[in-house]
């Protein structure tokens, strides 16, 4: 499912003038560069805290995570720096489902809070071990794009969803598959701002597959019904809606 509207101009007066997702309103997707920028900032500052021995900085980083997760990206200083200073100059990157990076931030909040509490209790070795764990994983994500928290989220989503074998049938009436369909149909759960979703759909159609899309933003009831924790998710079904293959 593709957006019918044109890409919206960036509002920050930059040379790059195209954007699909508004950073502070379209919260179910995120520019893939934004989490990596955030991880770079968090990892660097956690390392600075260790090198200087100023452990209260870990508490400030935890507070930043908490504010961003509860009040939104406008209250997250690294997010503001990326969307106000970096994105206007580089342009919008690929868009992804925001749930996995959000879960990773939640893990960061928990570990940094634990590190701060450990320092406050005088358990400095434990506190620095947790701080260095955050720094290492955050900088790994920033440099390589491999986000441990995101992978934990996706693994959990697969265990809850199709990876657990629960998606065995899609009701044809839910997705508009006609009862007399003679050919196999691909049902793709997608999001209108998800770049990977568009790429997958294009690849499937180019391969001659019949694709029916389900917008999880417009139909959250179907996302809940079928346990969709990750987009894109695509399955091949027969005329009765029985899943014959898992494609993505």
Descriptive notes:
The chain is α+β, with helices and mostly antiparallel strands and 248 residues long. The chain has 2 domains: 129 residues, no CATH class; 80 residues, 3-Layer(aba) Sandwich (Glutaredoxin). 52% of the residues lie in helices and 11% in strands. The strands form 2 sheets. A 4-stranded mixed sheet has the order 4-3-5-6. Strands 1-2 form a two-stranded antiparallel ribbon. Helix 1 runs antiparallel to helix 5 and helix 4 runs antiparallel to helix 5. The longest helix is centred in the middle third of the chain and has 22 residues. The chain is elongated.
Summarize this entry quickly.
Helices cover 52% and strands 11% of the residues.
Please give the radius of gyration in angstroms. 21 Å
Helix content: 40-55%
Terminus-to-terminus distance: 16 Å
Report the strand count: 6
Number of domains: 2
Major sheet attributes: 4 strands, mixed
The arrangement of helices and strands along the chain is EHHHEHHHHEHEHEE
Mind sketching the topology for me?
Elements (H helix, E strand, L loop, with lengths): L28 E3 L1 H20 L3 H16 L5 H14 L4 E3 L1 H22 L3 H21 L3 H13 L11 H4 L9 E6 L4 H12 L3 E6 L4 H6 L7 E5 L5 E4 L2
Parallel strand pairs: 3-4
Antiparallel strand pairs: 1-2, 3-5, 5-6
Features:
248 residues; alpha+beta; Glutaredoxin; 4-stranded mixed beta sheet; two-stranded antiparallel ribbon; 6 strands; elongated
């Amino acid at each position: 499912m593709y957006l019918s509207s044109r890409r919206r101009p960036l509002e920050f007066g930059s040379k790059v003038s195209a954007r699909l997702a508004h950073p502070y309103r379209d919260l179910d997707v995120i520019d893939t560069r934004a989490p990596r920028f955030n991880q770079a900032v968090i990892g660097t500052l956690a390392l600075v805290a260790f090198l200087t021995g100023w452990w209260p900085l870990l508490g400030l980083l935890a507070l930043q995570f908490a504010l961003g997760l509860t009040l939104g990206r406008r209250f997250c200083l690294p997010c503001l720096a990326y969307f106000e200073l970096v994105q206007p100059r580089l342009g919008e990157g690929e868009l992804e489902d925001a749930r996995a990076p959000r879960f990773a931030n939640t893990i960061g909040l928990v570990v940094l809070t634990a590190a701060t509490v450990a320092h406050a209790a005088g358990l400095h070795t434990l506190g620095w071990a947790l701080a260095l764990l955050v720094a290492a994983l955050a900088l790994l994500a920033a440099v390589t794009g491999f986000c441990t928290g995101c992978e934990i989220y996706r693994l959990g989503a697969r265990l809850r969803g199709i990876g657990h074998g629960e998606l065995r049938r899609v009701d044809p009436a839910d997705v508009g598959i006609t009862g007399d369909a003679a050919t196999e149909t691909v049902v793709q759960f997608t999001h209108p701002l998800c770049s990977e979703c568009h790429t997958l759909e294009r690849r499937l159609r180019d391969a001659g597959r019949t694709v029916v899309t389900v917008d999880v933003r417009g139909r959250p009831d179907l996302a809940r019904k079928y346990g969709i924790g990750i987009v894109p998710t695509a399955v091949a079904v027969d005329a009765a809606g029985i899943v014959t293959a898992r494609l993505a």
